[in-house]
Amino acid sequence: MGKLLIVGTVAFDAIETPFGKTDKILGGAATYIGLSASQFGVDSGIVSVVGGDFPEEYLKMLNDRNIDTSGVEVVEDGKTFFWSGRYHNDLNTRDTLITDLNVLANFNPIVPAHYLDSEFLMLGNLHPSVQLSVINQISVRPKLVVLDTMNFWMDNTLDELLEVIKKIDVITINDEEARQLSGEYSLVRAAQKIHKMGPNYVVIKKGEHGALLFNNGDVFFAPALPLEEVFDPTGAGDTFAGGFIGYLASTHDISFENMKRAIIFGSNLASFSVEKFGTERMEDLSNLEVQNRLQEFKELTQFEIELT
Amino acid sequence: MGKLLIVGTVAFDAIETPFGKTDKILGGAATYIGLSASQFGVDSGIVSVVGGDFPEEYLKMLNDRNIDTSGVEVVEDGKTFFWSGRYHNDLNTRDTLITDLNVLANFNPIVPAHYLDSEFLMLGNLHPSVQLSVINQISVRPKLVVLDTMNFWMDNTLDELLEVIKKIDVITINDEEARQLSGEYSLVRAAQKIHKMGPNYVVIKKGEHGALLFNNGDVFFAPALPLEEVFDPTGAGDTFAGGFIGYLASTHDISFENMKRAIIFGSNLASFSVEKFGTERMEDLSNLEVQNRLQEFKELTQFEIELT
Questions:
Q1: Helix residue spans in chain B (DSSP H)
Q2: Closest partner residue to B186 among A187, A227, A300, by Cβ?
Q3: Residue A229: its chain B contacts at CB < 8 A?
Q4: Which domains can be identified in chain B, with CATH numbers?
Q5: CA B106/CA B108 separation, integer angstroms
Q6: Distance (Å) from the C-alpha of residue B71 to the closest C-alpha of chain A?
Q7: Which of A141, A173, B26, B40 is deepest in the core (most CB within 10 A)?
Q8: What is d(CA A44, CA A34) in angstroms, rounded to the nearest whole number?
Q9: How many CB atoms lie within 10 A of CB B137?
Q10: What is the DSSP letter of B225?
Q11: Tell me: the pLDDT tens digits for A16-70?
């Protein structure tokens, strides 16, 4: 079991979908990653920042799941990062209505002393300079560094992002972002180019169409579970990433074979996350439910054909 | 080994892709289906119609692959069905430039006597009244009837199409067509509604995103092989369907487990079809290549996780 350090946003979200809307609820990349990874009982800690308006009960909920929040700075006279978005009817696309950076605007991350030797580092979607600062604070090079990022940083801080990408082992981005970053339409070619930027492993997330894991010549594919209804896709990508690194940290095995399992668990957990608004489903998710859904993934994908 | 009857177009296509363009080359749903099914050495026959302009050598090429063309009517003073299309840069969308029905406009299909007892019937994309006529000519209800159709028939001849759908076992359509036919956005719900229209098996083709096989509560997913380059998608769906029914006919086993294998073989063969213009790649495809690619499909999708 390896210690897992997560850097990312802890935030308020307000979400509109065709099924309804929420007030400000708990959100943020690090929140989803932490909840997802907690399914594997890993020792994890979050580095983030919130304002004085952030409810103590949210931090307690995370602590109850063995997620250390001593690295979550509380700026008493500041306000928590707030994002608001509205999903279209297909739930595949959304408009951002509000992005209030608030305390995130001047965030200077500080890794707690007892996480300076983390073997697994998850860099959630955030300004690349914050991600870089965390990498530089870790005393011993972690066994595995996973980066999640998005097109916003490609548009606005590409040079800093490329600096981070040089230093990591795994990048998780969606298909359009992989195309943007590489300038290649074919995802196979996009992965080849991104490999050359640094990471040995490239995970391309395709939402309802599953996820691809590339490791130079090798490729593995995990489908998304076909669902009758997607209620709220917010945080699905972060939940996927959290399941991926949480499983790897809990098994302490970063072989390609084990990464296949990690991708399946990431898809498994993401399929729960979208069933309710925000983090609600992830907060009450049991291991038995995850195991049962694993069986569904096996039935969905496994076949037997003898080669002749 | 079951006898396979294929009804569908045999045609000329002129294709433009970002990689180049062709003059009139061999095309048509039945052509692609037949070539794909021929990989499994089944006894197959095509029911179709061509004009006097159709080269004898094309029929000979099919015959050389054990495809009986005695059911392909040649209208000496007529012209062969012609389709022309231009693919966009992403190769996922295309514009139809020309559709000349020609001899297809008055096609009255006649099933040759020695195929009246076919155990496997593939209804390729064509006017539903032609598909219905073939169903009605078959003396003994086949072991399996597979239908491929498209949105054009949903728009223009929905009542006749629904008559056909009532009588079949398997329908193969793409995701947008499944949504149109069912009025449901979720593919799981769409499959449920389409089940109620008749077919016990619903195959939803998602192009580069793979294919789903629904059988009431059960679902299986086959990915498309991630390719560096898709050269020409024309006929990929027909090739998929031909591989599916060809494998089932050759194994004479229509269990759900065997349909999983058939879906994998369909995806396997379709991944070759798109590598060159038209039918070129399918004409020279060897069994060894298919077997090697099957190994790639296994590596792409198979994983081992013990349930705890």
A1: 29-37, 56-64, 128-137, 151-156, 158-166, 175-182, 187-197, 236-251, 256-273, 280-283, 287-301
A2: A227
A3: 186, 189
A4: 4-301 (3.40.1190.20)
A5: 6
A6: 33
A7: A173
A8: 7
A9: 15
A10: P
A11: 999 899 999 999 999 999 999 999 999 999 999 999 999 999 999 999 999 999 9
